[in-house]
Design goal:
Elements lengths: L2 E5 L3 E2 L5 E8 L6 E8 L6 E6 L7 E3 L7 E6 L4 E6 L8 E9 L14 E2 L3 E5 L2
Parallel strand pairs: 2-11
Antiparallel strand pairs: 1-3, 3-8, 4-5, 4-9, 5-6, 7-8, 9-10, 9-11
Length: 127
C-alpha cells in the first residue's frame, strides 16, 4: 500500500497563490507517477496536473490551469507539490493527489488509471 496525505488547502482570495503538498509513505515513491485531481461540488473529478516517476520531470497540465499551476516532486522527501498561482473562483474544489505505478515517461489523465488516492484537501478561492 502507498499512503498519500495532502496538505495546504485553505481559503485564498482571487489572484492569490497557494501551495499544496502530498506526502507519500509505504512503498518506493520514485516508482510512481503522480497526479493532482480536483472535484468541485456537483462535478466529476478532473485531472489537474501530473508528473512522471523520473526526477527529470515529464509533466502534463489541464488546459484550465496551464501557465498558472506547477507540479513538481522531490523523491528524496517522498513528496509531490502543486504550486497554484493566479487563482480563480473556478479553482475552488477538493484537491486530491494520486499515484500510479509506472516507469513510463508519459502522464495519464484518467482517474481510473491511478491506484492510490489521498483524502483530499479543500481549496476555496473567494473574496
Amino acid at each position: 500500500q502507498l499512503q498519500l496525505v495532502e496538505s495546504g488547502g485553505k481559503l485564498v482570495q482571487p489572484g492569490g497563490s497557494l501551495g499544496l503538498s502530498c506526502a507519500a509513505s509505504g512503498r518506493t515513491f520514485s516508482s510512481y507517477a503522480m497526479g493532482w485531481f480536483r472535484q468541485a461540488p456537483g462535478k466529476e473529478r478532473e485531472f489537474v496536473a501530473g508528473i512522471s516517476w523520473t526526477s527529470t520531470d515529464n509533466t502534463r497540465y489541464a488546459d484550465s490551469v496551464k501557465g498558472r499551476f506547477t507540479i513538481s516532486r522531490d523523491n528524496a522527501k517522498n513528496t509531490v507539490y502543486l504550486q497554484m498561482n493566479s487563482l480563480k473562483p473556478e479553482d475552488t474544489a477538493v484537491y486530491y493527489c494520486a499515484a500510479r505505478y509506472s516507469y513510463a515517461s508519459y502522464v495519464v489523465v484518467l482517474p481510473g488509471e491511478y491506484r492510490y488516492w489521498g483524502q483530499g484537501t479543500q481549496v476555496t478561492v473567494s473574496s
